[in-house]
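Readers of this paper often ask what the protein records in our data store actually look like. Such a record has a labelled line for the sequence and another for the backbone structure tokens. The tokens are whole numbers drawn from a learned vocabulary of local backbone shapes. We quote a single record here, exactly as it is kept in our systems:
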Amino acid sequence: MGSHLFSTIMLADIELGNRIIVAPMCQYSANEGNAADWHLMHLGQFAVSGVGLIITEVVGVEMNGRITPGCLSLCSDQHEASLKRIVDFCYGFGNAKMGIQLGHAGRKASTDLPWSGGKPITASDPRGWLTEAPSSMPYASEGWEAPTALDEAGLARIRQAFVDSTIRADRVGFEVLELHAAHGYLLHQFLSPLSNLRSDQYGGSLENRMRFPLQVFDAIASVWPKYKALGVRFSATDWVERSSWDLKESTQFSFELKKRGCNFIDVSSGGNSPDQKIDVGPGYQTGFAAEIRRETGLPTMAVGQITEPKQAEAVLRSGQADMVSLARGMLHNPRWAWHAAEALNEEAAYAPQYMRSSKAMRGLPIPGNPPVPGKK
């Protein structure tokens, strides 16, 4: 029997050659929201390395929706052109499908680059900006400014920004779109009672807290081509003991997304509170993906310290998820898919320029440089 990891899977009408996903990974290397040479190298290396799908780092639908001044955005023609250059390269030389993650950082926006400390940048700083959120409550008490609570006009503006960026993403050539509702960013802030203290139709009950994220999903679904894949990444739990967003509410959210035609769920966790207490370990989030998959029947991506090929295969074979999404493992070894194929006795895609490194051709003479008889 062949491996699950190297079997194909359909998301909408998009077929992935295998179930190895390059997870979104912020690179903090954009120039005024534009993708740069770094992104070409970063994503391009994965495109020629045998994975099934690459998802970009989160791309802000507004400049003020970026996490840091070094994050990508997709709200101008220049942003669009800079991403198209990269997607065209990846499709021209690689075999992977290309996906984009769209999001808005909400109250966690306007922070410094991680290697510069990652602290909040105040609105009075030339590099910073005012942040917005469901409620006027900062992420943490120390160093974080209180965001502006979004009114109806602000909600409408951000909904439209998601629509506009979705249209641009389609023009760029992305075939998979993932809506970011995880890690304490804006849509997660609406979902969680820890960050959503509203008393209007967008706060209080679970139905109300889901309202704006579902409105955003409906809005982007209305303009994203039906044959292309549309999914959502969310945090399955806040990892906070007091009343907070949890797996039960995540499952109900998943059912609502399924009704609306969602093609997959990318299951992560945490990020919405400095009080979180995460039980970290190998595959520590796969149980969340398994529960949502079991309850809703939606295809899921599992992420979180999945590092070894046989571990990834076990996650899929045991029914915990339909795909595995790797981040740090890919940074450590961009050729992870090639090595996984060898470990599982499978085949992975190679760019022809790199074919001589494949197991099938290893040790054969290099064309144009045949061995000399009698010499090693």
Observations:
- The chain has a mean pLDDT of 94.
